[in-house]
Specification:
The structure is a single chain. The chain is 46% helix and 19% strand. The protein has a 4-stranded antiparallel sheet, sandwiched between helices. Helix 2 crosses helix 3.
Length: 147
């Protein structure tokens, strides 16, 4: 292999924990709406070749942990995920109140040593909320952090 060919390859291992909310924290993501939203988010991430390590949330917010490749910026990923899922939810549930995500999101880089704990935290999101065992820094969005 030539040196120029080797220099074009990238090794990217960025694990990112992303949190975003529904508009005005409306408890919209329940039952079939939650299942459809999560399936849509998973399918869109797969289209972008962004591996999902964990996806879960509550009726008013979503937690997502991904391996971010060099080919997709965080801004592009979030634009696609939020745009596609809100469009789908409004089409599939036209009799419900108009759905939208709140502006913005919070994103935290995860070190390799913290990745598994973060994945468990997201996978057990509903239990953490029920037990009031929340990690405040991982639950706040930019709007809430500014208050």
């Amino acid at each position: 292999m030539k040196t120029t060919e080797r220099s074009r390859r990238n090794l990217i291992a960025l694990t990112v924990h992303i949190v975003w909310t529904t508009w005005k924290r409306q408890p919209y993501l329940v039952g079939e709406r939650e299942r459809r939203a999560y399936r849509c988010l998973s399918a869109e991430a797969e289209k972008l070749r962004v591996p999902i390590l964990a996806l879960n949330g509550m009726p008013d917010h979503v937690h997502l942990i991904v391996m971010l490749p060099s080919s997709v910026s965080l801004a592009k990923l979030m634009h696609q995920l939020k745009g596609t899922s809100s469009h789908l939810l409004n089409e599939e549930f036209p009799h419900d109140e108009h759905f939208r995500w709140a502006n913005g999101y919070a994103a935290f880089s995860l070190s390799h040593s913290h990745r598994e704990n973060a994945i468990l935290y997201v996978k057990n999101q509903k239990q953490h909320h029920a037990d009031d065992q929340l990690r405040a820094a991982l639950e706040r969005t930019p709007e809430e952090s500014a208050q």
